[in-house]
Design brief:
single chain, mainly alpha, globular
Length: 119
C-alpha cells in the first residue's frame, strides 16, 4: 500500500515540478514549496479524518499518508535546494524559503485539521 501510494505521489510531484519549471524562473524553488505546502494540507485532512471519524483503515492510512503524502512531499529536495541557495549566495531567498515553508506548512496542516474537526 505504501509503495502504491508512494508511486502516485512521486509521479504527481514530478509533474508539478515540470509544470512549475515552465512557469517560474527564480532562485526560489517554487515547485518544492508548493508540493510541501499542499502535502501538509492533505496530510492534515487525512489525519483529521482519521482522528475524528476513523474512516481510514490502517491500509488506507498507509496508502494515503505514508505512501502518497510521503512520495509527494519533498523534504530531501527542500534540503538540497536550500544548500544550493547557500552555495549561490542567495541568502535572502534562503531565509524566505525556509521560513515560509515551515510557517505556511504548519499553518496548512493546522488549518486542514481544524477544518475536518469543525464538521
Amino acid at each position: 500500500m505504501v509503495g502504491i501510494g508512494g508511486f502516485a505521489g512521486s509521479v504527481l510531484r514530478y509533474l508539478v515540478s515540470v509544470a512549475f519549471a515552465a512557469w517560474f524562473v527564480s532562485p526560489i524553488p517554487f515547485a518544492t514549496f508548493a508540493v510541501n505546502i499542499a502535502g501538509c494540507f492533505v496530510m492534515g485532512i487525512l489525519f483529521g479524518l482519521s482522528e475524528r471519524t476513523g474512516v481510514l483503515s490502517p491500509d488506507m492510512r498507509a496508502l494515503l499518508m505514508a505512501g502518497f503524502c510521503g512520495g509527494f512531499t519533498t523534504f530531501s529536495a527542500f534540503s538540497v535546494e536550500s544548500v544550493a541557495l547557500i552555495d549561490s549566495k542567495h541568502f535572502l531567498e534562503l531565509g524566505l524559503y525556509i521560513s515560509l515553508s515551515v510557517i505556511i506548512g504548519l499553518a496548512a496542516t493546522y488549518a486542514a485539521i481544524a477544518i475536518v474537526r469543525s464538521f
